[in-house]
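During the second year of the project, the team shifted from modelling isolated chains to modelling whole assemblies. The rationale, set out in the original proposal, was that interfaces cannot be judged from single-chain predictions alone. As a representative example for this report, we include one of the complexes processed in the last quarter. Its constituent sequences, exactly as entered into the pipeline, are reproduced here:
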Amino acid sequence: RKEVEQDPGPFNVPEGATVAFNCTYSNSASQSFFWYRQDCRKEPKLLMSVYSSGNEDGRFTAQLNRASQYISLLIRDSKLSDSATYLCVARTGNQGGKLIFGQGTELSVKP
Amino acid sequence: DGGITQSPKYLFRKEGQNVTLSCEQNLNHDAMYWYRQDPGQGLRLIYYSQIVNDFQKGDIAEGYSVSREKKESFPLTVTSAQKNPTAFYLCASSKERTQYFGPGTRLTVL
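Output from the structure prediction step:
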């Protein structure tokens, strides 16, 4: 079983749709969580950290459920520019801990 | 501009050759990392370094070597012992919780 698992996608949605990505992690010692965005043939870029209380950044909302070891990312009013691969990431330990990446979920937003 | 640079962007290598990928950062970050990414897969950790003159193996270190003689630099050598080196190589650095990535080097073995 992979340490971080995501829906592989691809998700094909129309502009303006709401889309949700799910992610599960297997290591209960994981302490920090992140969503990264990766455009085709580019490097991953941090989209947002995920906090226990849930957090929102504009159209993006991240949720964490430690009991279920589950992370989610919700994108509202999706734009064409949201098309990318979204990577779920877990870190074990404190700042020296390794990042474990999911395989990514591809999103394609169509006009 | 502060950031992480990787060179070259594209690299072609013949089988049996060693190649070195460059990674430089001017963010004053202590920790640096090397990952490889294969199509449709997540990033896998090759080596990481928390401090100058010290580094640790990641999950897939076989066939790779690194050095960390300066805080700013963390070069990766892909040796001929790496059986399947064609991949996208990403360097990252971090100071606290978050890792930031360089633009990557796409290595192709001919």
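The first strand of chain B starts at residue 4 and ends at 7. Chain B has a mean pLDDT of 93.
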